[in-house]
Write a structure and sequence with these properties.
There is one protein chain. This protein is of the alpha/beta class. The protein is 43% helix and 7% strand. The chain has helices spanning 22-32, 55-68, 89-101, 106-133, 135-138, 147-159, 162-176, 194-218, 220-237, 248-256, 273-288, 300-306, 319-323, 390-395, 409-417, 428-434, and strands at residues 77-78, 81-82, 344-348, 363-368, 387-389, 403-405, 423-426, 441-444, 448-451. Helix 2 packs across helix 3, helix 4 crosses helix 12 and helix 6 packs antiparallel against helix 7 (162-176). The two termini are 47 Å apart.
Length: 470
Amino acid sequence: MLPFQSVNLAKSFTPVPWATKPLTLLAVFLVSTFVPPGNPIATTPLDPILATPSQDEALYAPGILRMANGEDWLTPQFLGRPLLVKPPLMQWLSAVSFQLTGSLRLPSILAAAGALTIVYTATGPIGWLLLAANPMWRNRAGLVLMDDLLILFFLLAVAAPPRASAFFTGLAIMTKWFAGILPLALFFTKRPNWRTTLESAAILLAVVLPWHLYQLWANHDWFLAEYLGVELLGYAFNAPVQASAESWFSYYLPRLAWVAPLALPLTARRFNSTWLMWSGVLLASIAAYSYRNTTYLVPFAPALLLCHRGWIAPIYAPLALVALLAWPAPQPQMPISNQFAGREVLHLDPDDQLRTTLFPGATVRYVFMMEHLPPNGPLDFERLGIAKSVPAFLEAPDAKVDVVLAKDLEALKALILSSPQRDFILSPGVWQTLAIQVPHEIKIDYKVWLRSRALKEGPRPNRFQYEVKL
């Protein structure tokens, strides 16, 4: 017999009167802002098994910094080209935050704190503790990713009446594209009449349509190819290269163990049917989507706690200790600084999780050891001139080239020896394998830096300040 079976958990756990007062909730919100970690950009491991760092932080951050620098706010950028993988709500908020406070992560930190406060309001301090202590939540919360805003809008959309739900669903769509439509699965459980349904549809379209119509007009071909062709039609039905070769069950079952303790309070048989349905919607969407990613499980964590009707009893507090298990430490990374200002830097493979793109004043390109890029749906980077082979790049090093394709080590040698005006960043292992004499100054730290002695400024410098606060 389990120890808690002798306890009458069917009764509501009644909070003290002051526990839900506005000042108490404000205090909970402020305490919740200290939950996220303080690792540098794109170093926080997002997966407890693969130790996959948060590469997307460095994917979105350059465009955010360019927005904050006064460049195009409507079209996110990455290395001088449009980045239409998701709508820009998170980027907009982070850019405003950077202008006001110097912090890229503040909007995500506040959104994560808002979600924790909602969980506290519904499930009490024990529910808050269980979520805040969970490594999958704690280590990911507050990063320059879309998950925190998405989760907050999810919770608000599920809990709100129809018109407000439509508004928050629109914000969720503007945060993470088609993932944001999931609350619509519960819309009609609120039993709106036809007038409320039409008004809700108008609200949602008013939030979502302006930016989408602008992109359809301003970046027609790119919008259709990347935003619709790749992100919607491509990745939904034909996943890109997976981070793991495991099957869906082999991948997700061990990772579900990190959120499973949050379901144990449901043994008290105090269920909230709305949140049970929402948890089912989340699981069904994860099962239906072709790509596997540990962060997809994160919205499931607060949903599981909210499935418990009423405040969670203190007897479940020890579950927080179960969650406090070891998590992989971030790998050493080259610090972000202005040491590459005025230089054209070619980095061999984005094994730095794209962090080189955050070096201010540098023109950054990547070198991939392959002859051709793998198919990426209708967006052909080689045809667009964004990726070029070594001979083609040396003949015409256009500013729009982000990726140089070296089919073998001989091609890489030719690229380095023919580019005394460019800097190169290589891993120590590749450098030893090359075994060549170069016209560059050689510096060895986290990586091997071949520093040009015949400096020529790159064609597309990153024009933003480098003192990025977390």
